[in-house]
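note to self: dont lose this again. the chain is below, predicted strucutre after it. 841 aa total, dont forget to put it in the shared folder this time
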Amino acid sequence: MDKNLDFKLVEEGRQQKWIDNKYFSTHDEKKLPFTIILPPPNITGQLHIGHALDDYLQDTIIRFKKIEGYDVMWVAAKDHAGIATQAKVEKKLLEQGESRYTLGREKFVNEIWKWKNDYSKNIDEQWNKMGLALDYSSERFTLDKNANEAVLKVFVDMYDEGLIYRDQKAINWDPKFKTALSNIEVVNKEVKQKMYYVKYPFSDKSGHLTVATTRVETMYSDVALAINPNDKNAKKLLNKSILHPLTNKEIPIITSPLIDENFGTGVMKVSAHAMDDIDIIKENNLPIIECIDDNGLMNKEAQQFAGMDRFVAREEIAKLLQKKKLIVKTEEVISNVGYSERSDTPIEILVRYQWFVKMHDLSTKLLNHLESSDAVNFYPERFKNVIKTWMENAHDWTISRQIWWGHRIPAWYNDNGQVIVQVNKPDGKWTQDPDVLDTWFSSALAPFVFLGWPQSTEKLSRYFPTDILVTGYDIIFFWVARMYFQSLYFTGKKPFKNVLLHGLVRDAQGRKMSKSLGNGINPIEIIDKYGSDVLKMALIFNVTAGQDINFSNDKLESAKLFLNKFWNVARLISQIKVHIKEEFDENKMLDSFDDWILNKFLTLKSNIKEAMDKYEFTIIYKHIQNFIVNDLSSWYLEFVKFKTNKNFVHFLFKEILLLLHPFMPFTTDYLYENMYHEQLLEATPMKLVERNLSNNNVNILIELITVLRKYREEKNISKSEQLFFDKKTLILNAVDKRIIAKLTNFRQLKNNDLEIKLSNNKAISIKLSDEQKQKEIEEIKKLIDFSTKEIEFNKKFLDNKAFLEKANEKTILDKKNKLQQHETNLKFYQELLIKKQTPKK
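---
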């Protein structure tokens, strides 16, 4: 073995070997099952560093469970990612002078399938670079034939049972992608805006009401002004009407409890471009008049501003109002503006026919299950309350999307306005709904659909519910909650037993990674530079459930340093040439040093198991470091050099490689294969039991060596200078003495000068040279001098009547305690000095 780890040599061909040998795609039904569904990455580009963290965590868990003896299944999957993928392909076509409209639906969808095939291969290559232990033979795609069949069945069943409905409602609209969005696809951002205070004159010319609004561009859709019914002027105002300042139309003054009396002037204009406004309009049977279209442009209702961008129109309309002297004042304000999570464009509120999932019953079912003994366990536990709070306030879910890539809605319309919901086209003249379903609708079915539902229940009966879901906390509402309620509804079971929620991977300064900052990290580039094991360790050993990670080169260098240390430990062990017997006999083979390291190893194994059960990966790393660097390398391998029977070191190292395989799979697999000519993933850990250390002297030997080294270091004595000690109450054999001499350059000699206490009432004494004795005497004299001065200093205060009268009890007591302590110290040092200066007989 070379002195330095060559990760390219270690990793070359290893993933292909794992795949060819079907280590993670062959299943043994005699073993207990353990299942994970991979959160399917979008087929929109490269995997990012967040994917790497997520995938490495799952890979660690799966490999750990396999080594423990489980029948593991980690289902590979990819997501069709409706809006995101369509946007990528549309952009590509635009560069070629084409669009989805010039191609038509069928040809456009074919172009996306080509894209899918190309980027699916890219993801495969990245998975292979990372060495993921996926069951590739069971890979699923959210838009594959069986998934589509499942999604359509779910839609039809939910419609038939009254859980899906179609209605004309106010929805969030993305003007860039020209599609509806669900509430959780809207991100609120604080934006600096102008608040305009606009005059709305009474139609009888008796004055005006002032309305505060940031959105003067929506004034052309105003159909009323509204006040709170508790407004003190309500009765008087309800008898009046308003002459709209831009359209000159007469509009009423109405009341609504939705109006906040403390916002602005307490009067709100009611238009078609706000959620609350639509509710007020419907309650009062007022007309819905939109003045902004699907593209975010002003329509004909906006008169001379028709065709203008809504934000440009805002500025122009404000100028017109100013010109008409209808603006009382303007203010700079910070207000929340909804942005599309996908396109990062301000959304618009439009009224459209869409398909919705009725959430009340589904939410209730989930909330009841969450309080049961069968509830899903969340890591960290606080996210149980997060999901509970959201489900208690869940809005109906807008599931239709005005795009072409996705699961086509199985609804059919005829010329008479009738609607039939079924998978196949009805007989006669029927047209299918052009919309597709929200990507999260199909993803919500992943835990049971990816295991074969509804076509087969074979895998479902064995591997469902899955054992753990590992994902980022940022999609707890998008995905985790939806999988939860859909699984409860369609299978009667929870989708997973546990959920491990990790945070985002941020840059070294704690900033979110983005193209604009240019701080994104490509995991494949890191693997090409450092290797997969280094990246894996740098990520998983720095993750704390529910918290973000600040990622830096320091973490990579630290992982690299440890892995090189481990490699050199392996290299040293590989040079210990022994014949490993087929049968391991611990009673005949082990001596006191082996007993000691075996117990240390079993403690490590127990600690790792306990931490893995709680998904505390940072703790695991500390345990591993302490064992490898301290117990194994610094001590046991030093002791082995003095042993005649060295067989156990190889039995032990094979067990170490098995135990650490989940955390550094490439390196451990390479070492196992090249050192022992066996396959690690075909091995079974030995059943090792703790040894009785009641008469074991190894811990005292380590303590003694540590004390002797520390003495030499503190006294600044060269390692080459031989020193002497007397074992006093210790019992040391010949091997112990040789080890001490080699590791400390101390030799045994009776009647020494300096006594040092060890644990368990053991002690040693050290022979001092004349120079060292004189140094000891000088140090004691300095301590005597210091204590004498402190006694004089504290006595001055305690002999001073003025101090005793003015000082509080605590201060006086403190002085007395210090005086007493220094008097005791002085006596001790004086006696010690006499002892040191008296020649030994």
